[in-house]
Amino acid sequence: MTQTAPPPAAPAAAPGDRRRRGRAATSLGAASGLGLGIALVWFSLLVLIPLTAVLVQASAGGWSTYWSILTNAQTVAALELTVGQAVLVTAVNVVIGTAIAWVLVRDHFPGKRVLEVVIDIPFALPTIVAGLVLLSLYGPSSPLGLNWANTQIAVFLAFLFVTLPFIVRTVEPVLIELEPEVEEAAASLGASRFTTFRMIILPSLAPAITSGAALSFARAISEYGSLVLLSGNLPYSTEVASVRILSFVEGDNLVDAAAVASILLLVALVVIVALDVLSRRVARYG
Amino acid sequence: MSIRISGVGKSFGGFTALADIDLDIATGELTALLGPSGGGKSTLLRIIAGLEVADTGSVEIEGVDATRLPAQKRNVGFVFQHYAAFRHLSVAGNVSFGLKIRKRPRKEITARVAELLELVHLSQFADRLPAQLSGGQRQRMALARALAIEPTVLLLDEPFGALDAKVRRELRNWLRRLHDEVHVTTVFVTHDQEEALEVADRIVVINHGRIEQVGSPDELYDRPASEFVMSFLGPVTTLHGHLVRPHDLEIETRPFGGATPGWVERFTRVGFEVRLDVRLDDGAATSSVLVTLTRADATAKGLAEGVQVWIKPVAGASRVRIGTPTEDVRNADSSLNAVDAVSEPTFS
Amino acid sequence: MRRPTKARWVLRIVVVAYLFLLVIWPVALVAKATFAHGLGPVITALTEPEVVFAFELTISVAFWAVVLNTIFGVGISLLLVRYTFPGRRALNALVDLPLSVSPIVVGLALLLVYSGRTGWLGRTLESAGLQVIYAPPGIILATAFVSVPVVVREIVPVLHEIGTEQEQAARSLGASGLQTFLRITLPAIRWALLYGVVLSLARSLGEYGAVKIVSGGVAMRTQTATLLVEERYQQFGAANATTAYAAAFVLALLAVVALIIVTSLRPDKENS
């Protein structure tokens, strides 16, 4: 089955899994030490240092400044909207994402391969184009007569669109790996199809669903491009956190921008750590 | 009769897995379905369990027609080759699963689980996860899990196939002793004839979707109904158009009544056994005859490569005439098979 | 379980309807809107000098971003899988970070470090004559940032799976580290690598939020295709709208083509 890389099943390389074949992890020699050094320099220049700069800048004015920026009414509204819609969208994705994965793995009908590509489209599509795409069906010129542009529903839809692949792609491989014998065993012990799903299949999927949900949430709160054309970015109404940050940047107010950005960054870090912990837990089940 | 199978047939696409199977399995018996891979024995087992539906025929379990009954309602215990453990549940969780489904009271479940874990010697692993157990331990857990629901019938699909040889032998004996203690009607599938011969009360030999023969291990080994059964259950060699067991051939370095002359082409020693490839003098371009005997005997008779010998089947040796068609014998009565008593050969 | 039950049909319909309303129909509508006035206007729009420049810039930026990410991605993957060192687990987790970070935050972060005026490193670089922000190098960095994990995530599982036996065999036959890499490791991971490259190319072509901050969006200078789409859509006039849709359509087409390539690579990967 297709699996696009970035919506992952687990963070790359669960470390310390000694069970892997040929796992001769050697310690660094001279050449590889140099390689590591170069890689770290590049990674630092590109990722680590810039992100650290955000945190540093955010705390530039001290704790009280930081706090006052975050409690600014418009900022609070933006954060509430962002987090609220992200949670809602994640909840929807848990259900529909699992359902989509189930249909892709367990069901067979003509045209199913097409759906595999369709699911990855939100991931590969430029976000600004995504906004245009959603506008065509849910904006002023909608053939269905809907006009949800510049409303909170637009935010909901945009989040829904960009987070589509995540849970599907984390659940799919787990579903594929499920042994049919396990379900047969449950049946032979007297479990109905539904009981088997509830007590046997779902628990096996839980870690994958959780990691997909974490990624979905992180992606949703980060979204920007699709909202530019779709939501109107109206303060107190349809303005999300990333838009707020952008307006600070455009106003050359980098401290405020960094402060709000630090919140988003913190959430991203929490998600990463949670996924790492989760993947170790799952490795226990073998 | 615990299980009665009548006229069962099953095809997958163009492939016929089972053709018109009739079989009765008595209550409390330990029966082996033996045969080569792809022969249909697993399919038959799964049809009994309700995990597959037969195209034709019927399955009766303890007098009740179970043909259309789903697996959930048949109260059969099933053990899979690769354990099918519930990975996220502990050992105790696995074993108690069937009882939880049936909404038994908590106390009853705890007691029964403890009893079963004791039976399979896994009591100290009750809270472990299956991933932390060895293959043999997982299979014992799977057995306990199947027995927990007090099944009418216990079915095992190549239960020791995924284990290594030593563990396989241990568990084989252990299954036999378990059956002696628990007495539930048990059917297991295997392609290992040694396993079937050692463990089962009765063996059903299945090949190409048909029953070749049914009988006790002795009956099948000593009075095989066909070439296939004879060659599948033990070593065979060909002598004068008959299949005969290599250890049933008398061999001497001088002629004796009715013996065929030849010479030792190859002398191989494997442990205590000596295997001789004997090339007959009759000039036919057939392959050599395999004769096996103990090392002591071989030394006593002065056998070595190049030595001239005379061979003849011992009195009472089982033989099957080559070209015997496979009879589709219903509930094959082993006394009606194609083995003939050893007689004087008709050559001069 | 083999017969399509009612539940199965319900599930099918729900899933297909959801995907239709969320993705399929909207994308089809955009395609329709693009060609609403025929092929002519679209061609005219796409041959506009500013549009041509924007796409050239986007493609070259994406190219360099992918090259960087591939080289360093393979390097990091090898380090993560084949070696142990203090901090490996942290590095492993941090590699995934760009995936969860908002593009706006990315832009801000790069701005803070590389801005010619106030950036930590930017000030020094500017005085040395290298402008990062509001210039192509900045756009390359922003584009590379978001695709950092893509190649790594694809290669790491494959490196795990193939194990070190082949590489050890090569070494025992006298191959040097580089030879082993070029002749043994690289061929073993080539499909995963191709997959990662195509996917990061698709993402790089479409980067918008981070680029918006670091590039300044000056037409014929630092305006990428995605920025062009935004600019033209927000201007009045049918010609501008057509240009916006035309550029968007091309970007969407490139994305879908990349996906199709990648989808057809998958089964090959599984069979090899």
CATH topology of chain C, anyone? MetI-like fold
Number of DSSP helices of chain C? 13
Q: Write down the secondary-structure element order of chain B.
A: EEEHEEEHHHEHEHEEHHEEEEEEHEE
Give the class-level CATH name of chain C.
Mainly Alpha
Strand content of chain B: 25-35%
What value does the Rg of chain B take, in angstroms? 24 Å
**Percent range of helical residues of chain C:** over 70%
The whole-number mean of residue pLDDT values of chain C reads: 88
Q: Give the total of beta strands of chain B.
A: 18
Q: Give the uncertain stretches of chain C in residue-range form.
A: none
- Which runs of chain B of at least 5 residues are low in confidence (pLDDT < 50)? 328-348
User: Can you say what the CATH homologous superfamily of chain C is?
Assistant: MetI-like
Count of helical regions of chain B: 9
The order of strands across the largest sheet of chain B is: 6-7-8-3-9-10
Structural class of chain C: mainly alpha
Oligomer: heterotrimer
Mean pLDDT of chain B: 88
**Largest interface, by Cβ-Cβ below 8 angstroms: which chains and how many residues each?**
A-C, 105 and 111 residues
Following the backbone from N to C, one meets helices and strands of chain C in this order, namely: HHHEHHHHHHHHHH
Cα radius of gyration of chain C in angstroms: 22 Å
N- to C-terminal distance of chain C: 31 Å
Topology, pairings included?
The complex is a heterotrimer of chains A (286), B (348) and C (272).
Chain A: E1 26-27, H1 30-58, H2 62-70, H3 73-106, H4 112-124, H5 127-138, H6 152-162, H7 164-177, H8 180-188, H9 193-222, H10 225-230, H11 241-250, H12 254-285
Helix pairs in contact in A: 1-12, 3-6, 3-7, 3-9, 5-6, 7-9, 8-9, 9-12, 11-12
Chain B: E1 3-12, E2 15-25, E3 30-34, H1 41-49, E4 56-61, E5 64-65, E6 76-79, H2 91-101, H3 106-119, H4 135-148, E7 153-157, H5 165-182, E8 185-190, H6 193-199, E9 202-207, E10 210-215, H7 217-222, H8 227-233, E11 237-239, E12 242-244, E13 249-252, E14 260-270, E15 273-280, E16 289-294, H9 295-301, E17 308-313, E18 319-321
Parallel strand pairs in B: 3-8, 3-9, 6-7, 7-8
Antiparallel strand pairs in B: 1-2, 1-4, 4-5, 9-10, 11-12, 12-18, 13-17, 14-15, 14-17, 15-16
Chain C: H1 6-34, H2 39-46, H3 49-82, E1 83-84, H4 88-95, H5 97-100, H6 103-114, H7 122-127, H8 136-162, H9 165-172, H10 177-205, H11 209-215, H12 225-234, H13 238-271
Helix pairs in contact in C: 1-13, 2-13, 3-8, 3-10, 3-12, 6-8, 6-11, 8-10, 8-11, 9-10, 10-13, 12-13
